[in-house]
TrEMBL record:
GO terms for cellular component: membrane. Belongs to the CDP-alcohol phosphatidyltransferase class-I family. Pfam families: CDP-OH_P_transf (PF01066). Its main location: membrane. It comes from freshwater metagenome. The chain crosses the membrane at residues 20-45, 91-111, 123-142, 154-176. This is Unannotated protein.
Amino acid sequence: MASPILTWPNALTGLRALGIPLFLYLALGPEADGWAIVVLAIGGATDYFDGKLARALGQESKLGEILDPTIDRLYIVATLIALYIRDAVPLWLIATLVIRDVVLGLMTVLLTMKKKPPLKVTFMGKAATFNLLYAFPFLLLALSDSTAGEVAFIFGWAFAIWGVALYISTGVSYFLTALKTIRV
């Protein structure tokens, strides 16, 4: 695996990171929900394409392996904060996702201290993140007083429930894998 820093996929991931403060501004400042949803959609698309691009160009890197899931987590936390402030999601949902990420973050630190390789992102882990990132624009749209808002509420919570279930199950799987790796 190459380890260059300046690659097209890493640039795309960096661009995605710039969307986080823009999303927060749009969702919490002028409440320009339409534009905030567009930023989330672009963030989701670039999350998909940076990995595809890395594999297609042979530009997979250690930085990309760390940066991509880190930006995913930051997007999730930022979006949850905005949705919570706007009364679109309950605190238990945020606590569940944040606790899982904190536990796995601590496991990553332990792996690093033991000079073990980082956890590999699994397909189910990607599916969990996909479901959550798909839920958020719907939950934001659900805040509107319209038929579209009512439909978005149903879709948003369907994706959120699946996403949380997958997030918890993959969190347990990652945790057990990390424990096994640390013990070896």
